[in-house]
Amino acid sequence: MLPADAVRVGTAGRPSPWLDADHLARHAGDIDVLHLHVGHGGVELSRLEEWTGEVRRLGIPLVVTVHQLRDPREPGRRRLDAQLAAVLATAEVVLTLTPSAADEIADRFGRTAIVLAHPSVAEPDPELGAERGLVGVRLGRASAAVPDPAAVARASASGAVSGGGRLRVLAEVGWDIDPGVRALAEAGELELVVHRPEEAVAQLQQLHVAVLPERCGTHSRELEVCRDVGTRVVAPSCGFFADQWSEVVTYGNDEVDGLDEVSLTAAVAAALTRPMPRPADRAWREEQREAVLRVHAEVYAQLKDPVLLIPRELGTGPNAGV
């Protein structure tokens, strides 16, 4: 989402060298605006607080896009909350992806966020078809996000059979596959497909329904892939996945009550009764992308001129959530 008249300075890296306070101080004259995308916290809090202090001292305008308000890889939210508090207290402009996330940012951190849509991330393969009744769920590399992969697989398989379909569990090469999931595959209750990372989009395109197994999180890139390629999504009740796309079917799964297997089974069966959605219209997706780019360009241009202020209506007008 880099506007045509904006220039990215420096080389890419993880973590970015721009998140180092010393690097920032040495190269502050090279940049007009800092834009930080907050997803899973990758920098220790002490370093982040030192960095935000340096941002304020140098007077560099900071834009923060909040993708995640909860890190699925962490057992609790204390660490990410502290990181968010540090950067949002320093940010001049806050962006996020759904109205519900903006409401939570306002409630928890006292900041008003401009809502912009998640841009398109994939294009469907015109030579690749989808199988009606095929349900897929990506499971592997165990984390706090999916404490019981076998339970997710069992409930999804039950829903797939009830809806006249079958379940395929997807795992990338090198992922740790839960022994319970392997046992279900060996018993013939599901199909296990191990694929290369670059095949992930194609695997999702072949499905009628994709199940997101997370018990916590905020927004989903995988959901946007499914929207792009025309795969219906069954998503957990945690986070704001259903705000991203109207075609989402929700089931019970969150940090408080855990996985509701009956709810997941019913959601998968219900999703299979609905027609497969068409892939996202590419012209509409391009218009959406251009609208998001325009807002980024306006924010960057206005932050370069301290006399100008971000207009209140920027977060609620035709560009918001498009």
Kindly report how far apart the N and C termini lie: 14 Å
Average pLDDT, to the nearest integer? 90
Percentage beta strand? 15-25%
Q: What's the count of strands?
A: 12
What is the string of helix and strand elements?
HEHEHEHEEHEHEHEHEHEEEHH
Alpha carbon gyration radius: 21 Å
> Structural class, please?
alpha/beta
Widest sheet: strand ordering:
7-6-5-8-9-10
Low-confidence stretches: 307-322
Shape: globular
Number of helices: 11
Largest sheet: 6 strands, parallel
Percent of residues in helices: 25-40%
Short characterization:
The chain is α/β, with parallel strands linked by helices and 322 residues long.
Topology, pairings included?
Blueprint: H1 21-27, E1 34-38, H2 45-58, E2 62-66, H3 78-90, E3 93-96, H4 99-109, E4 113-115, E5 134-138, H5 149-162, E6 166-172, H6 179-186, E7 191-195, H7 200-205, E8 209-211, H8 221-229, E9 232-236, H9 241-244, E10 249-251, E11 253-254, E12 258-259, H10 261-273, H11 282-304
Parallel strand pairs: 1-2, 2-3, 3-4, 5-6, 5-8, 6-7, 8-9, 9-10
Antiparallel strand pairs: 11-12
